[in-house]
Prior knowledge:
The chain has helices at residues 2-14, 20-29, 34-53, 60-79, 89-95. By secondary structure, it is mostly helical.
Amino acid sequence: MVKKEEDKNLKGALAYLLGFVTGIFFLMTEKENEFVRFHARQSTIVFGILFVLNFVPLLNLFVIPASLLLWLFLMYKAYSGEKYKLPYIGGFAEKQF
Protein backbone atom coordinates (compact mmCIF):
# COMPACT_ATOMS: atom_id res chain seq x y z
CA MET A 1 0.00 0.00 0.00
CA VAL A 2 2.84 2.41 0.79
CA LYS A 3 4.30 1.92 -2.70
CA LYS A 4 1.04 2.99 -4.36
CA GLU A 5 0.85 6.04 -2.07
CA GLU A 6 4.41 7.05 -2.98
CA ASP A 7 3.69 6.57 -6.70
CA LYS A 8 0.62 8.79 -6.41
CA ASN A 9 2.59 11.52 -4.63
CA LEU A 10 5.46 11.34 -7.12
CA LYS A 11 3.10 11.55 -10.10
CA GLY A 12 1.29 14.48 -8.46
CA ALA A 13 4.61 16.33 -8.07
CA LEU A 14 5.73 15.44 -11.58
CA ALA A 15 2.54 17.00 -12.94
CA TYR A 16 4.18 20.34 -12.12
CA LEU A 17 7.67 19.50 -13.41
CA LEU A 18 7.38 21.17 -16.83
CA GLY A 19 4.37 23.31 -16.03
CA PHE A 20 1.33 22.92 -18.23
CA VAL A 21 3.17 20.45 -20.51
CA THR A 22 3.42 17.73 -17.85
CA GLY A 23 -0.01 18.72 -16.59
CA ILE A 24 -1.49 17.90 -19.99
CA PHE A 25 0.60 14.72 -20.20
CA PHE A 26 -0.78 13.41 -16.90
CA LEU A 27 -4.32 14.41 -17.84
CA MET A 28 -4.02 12.29 -20.97
CA THR A 29 -2.29 9.29 -19.36
CA GLU A 30 -3.72 9.08 -15.82
CA LYS A 31 -7.35 7.99 -16.00
CA GLU A 32 -8.06 6.63 -12.53
CA ASN A 33 -6.20 8.47 -9.77
CA GLU A 34 -8.11 11.63 -8.88
CA PHE A 35 -5.20 12.99 -6.78
CA VAL A 36 -2.87 12.95 -9.79
CA ARG A 37 -5.57 14.28 -12.11
CA PHE A 38 -6.30 17.19 -9.74
CA HIS A 39 -2.65 18.23 -9.65
CA ALA A 40 -2.42 17.83 -13.43
CA ARG A 41 -5.47 20.09 -13.90
CA GLN A 42 -4.17 22.67 -11.45
CA SER A 43 -0.74 22.63 -13.12
CA THR A 44 -2.24 23.05 -16.57
CA ILE A 45 -4.38 26.00 -15.50
CA VAL A 46 -1.94 27.91 -13.29
CA PHE A 47 1.14 27.50 -15.45
CA GLY A 48 -0.87 28.11 -18.62
CA ILE A 49 -1.95 31.47 -17.16
CA LEU A 50 1.59 32.28 -16.00
CA PHE A 51 2.97 31.34 -19.43
CA VAL A 52 0.66 33.86 -21.10
CA LEU A 53 1.38 36.56 -18.48
CA ASN A 54 5.10 36.09 -19.08
CA PHE A 55 4.69 37.77 -22.48
CA VAL A 56 3.49 41.05 -20.92
CA PRO A 57 6.73 43.12 -20.79
CA LEU A 58 6.60 44.60 -17.28
CA LEU A 59 4.72 41.73 -15.70
CA ASN A 60 7.38 39.17 -16.57
CA LEU A 61 9.70 40.75 -13.99
CA PHE A 62 7.29 39.52 -11.33
CA VAL A 63 5.91 36.44 -13.07
CA ILE A 64 9.24 34.63 -13.42
CA PRO A 65 10.24 34.68 -9.71
CA ALA A 66 6.65 34.06 -8.61
CA SER A 67 6.43 31.10 -11.01
CA LEU A 68 9.60 29.57 -9.62
CA LEU A 69 8.42 29.86 -6.01
CA LEU A 70 4.95 28.58 -6.84
CA TRP A 71 6.41 25.70 -8.85
CA LEU A 72 8.60 24.56 -5.93
CA PHE A 73 5.78 25.00 -3.42
CA LEU A 74 3.22 23.04 -5.44
CA MET A 75 5.65 20.21 -6.19
CA TYR A 76 6.46 19.96 -2.48
CA LYS A 77 2.78 19.90 -1.48
CA ALA A 78 1.93 17.22 -4.04
CA TYR A 79 4.92 15.08 -3.10
CA SER A 80 3.90 15.37 0.55
CA GLY A 81 0.53 13.90 -0.39
CA GLU A 82 -1.44 17.09 0.15
CA LYS A 83 -4.20 18.08 -2.23
CA TYR A 84 -3.36 21.78 -1.88
CA LYS A 85 -5.81 23.99 -3.71
CA LEU A 86 -4.68 27.42 -4.83
CA PRO A 87 -7.27 30.14 -4.20
CA TYR A 88 -9.77 30.32 -7.09
CA ILE A 89 -7.67 28.18 -9.43
CA GLY A 90 -7.72 25.11 -7.19
CA GLY A 91 -11.50 25.16 -6.86
CA PHE A 92 -11.85 25.64 -10.60
CA ALA A 93 -9.40 22.79 -11.28
CA GLU A 94 -11.31 20.51 -8.94
CA LYS A 95 -14.58 21.02 -10.84
CA GLN A 96 -13.19 20.80 -14.39
CA PHE A 97 -12.79 17.94 -16.80
